[in-house]
Amino acid sequence: MKKLPLLGNLSPAEFLRDYWHKKPLLIRGAIPGFKPLLKFEKLAELAALNHVESRLVSLRDGEWDMQHGPLAELPARSEPNWTMLVQGVNLHDERADELLRQFRFVPDARLDDLMVSFATDGAGVGPHYDSYDVFLLQAHGKRRWRIGAQQDLTIIEGLPLKILANFEAEEEFVLEPGDMLYLPPQYAHDGIAEGECMTYSIGFRSPSFQELGESFLQFMADSIDLPGRYADPELQEAKNPAEIPKHMLATVTEELNKVRWDEEDVTIFLGEHMSEPKHNVFFTPPAKPLTFGRFMETAAKRGIKLSSKTLMLYRGKNVFINGESLAAGRADKVVLDVLANDRRIDGATLGKATDDVTESLYAWYQDGWVELG
């Protein structure tokens, strides 16, 4: 088992067994010599874009305020107690994407995004908890974290943020650049900047079963096949016209009970659902796309890689990419599995693909889902 400095010289298996979903882990020097991947000015540019999720949180005279982006203006950097949060930075910077991919010991279906928090002196977002696992990597400056495994998760009502009413810290750490703190879901924490600082949050997807259930029923609506129409040739005179007839209720119940699904249906639903891009993700097709022949010729030399915005998953014969699915034959599965796992394939691997797969790759290239290496 390979030990990772990223995990405090634990192997991924050891970390997942002993800490994941269970207890916090402080990792000093998780990434030695780490420096911010983006300057403040670049973060501010991202926060000003319509398709980038961002927030500005401030605390003035004891009053919390939160503004949602796009953030056209920001307070002066010399002003204390304000925080700029930028989600999905990995979608807009290759180095940020490479950092996020270091955490692929957790399946891609669970890996979410890299959020960057820029905070001035004394700033934070209040004591709170997250519903998902998170790694908090200090990128610049210092941040003091206070954490606790409290059961009371009561939220203060009437605030623009979800701040814990009765936060009780059990441990306290000051993180410096390269240090990282892992916290399991619903673990209370409060981070305060000591001077100007940046913190990178690696978050994980944890969909609610309600969300999954609602989406699954919508998914099944496309495959339900219930022929026929309700009829009642033996209808009796209605004594109480407003009462739903017992026969009608029984007949409809019988028909709806014919709706069935199996593991294959759930597999396709889950793959499409978990690979679906977020609403604010937009792909950029090539300005001057190559012809199919030129594309294949160039790809044979340079290979192909997934766009940083593309999520590709698979299970068995089913392959999923950006909310779409296809069933692949055995030979094609070998090629597509390599692309999904390595997020790129070389020309030699591409040469093993059938015409069906090369046509799909070319269509994905035209859509901006894959790029030439």
From TrEMBL:
SMART domains, alphabetized: JmjC
As given in the record, the signal peptide range reads none
UniProt key word Magnesium: no
What's the protein called, per UniProt? 50S ribosomal protein L16 3-hydroxylase
| Enzyme class, spelled out | oxidoreductase
Q: Which PANTHER family match?
A: MINA53 MYC INDUCED NUCLEAR ANTIGEN, RIBOSOMAL OXYGENASE 1
UniProt keyword Iron, yes or no: yes
Using the record's annotation, list all stretches that form the JmjC domain. 95-221
Please provide the record's keywords in A-Z order.
Dioxygenase, Iron, Metal-binding, Oxidoreductase, Ribonucleoprotein, Ribosomal protein
Q: What is the required cofactor set for this protein?
A: Fe(2+)
One Pfam match, by short name? JmjC_2
Q: Organism's domain of life?
A: Bacteria
Sorted alphabetically, the Gene Ontology cellular component annotations on this record are: ribosome
Q: Organism source for this protein? A: Massilia aurea
Instruction: Please give one Gene Ontology molecular function term for this protein.
Output: metal ion binding
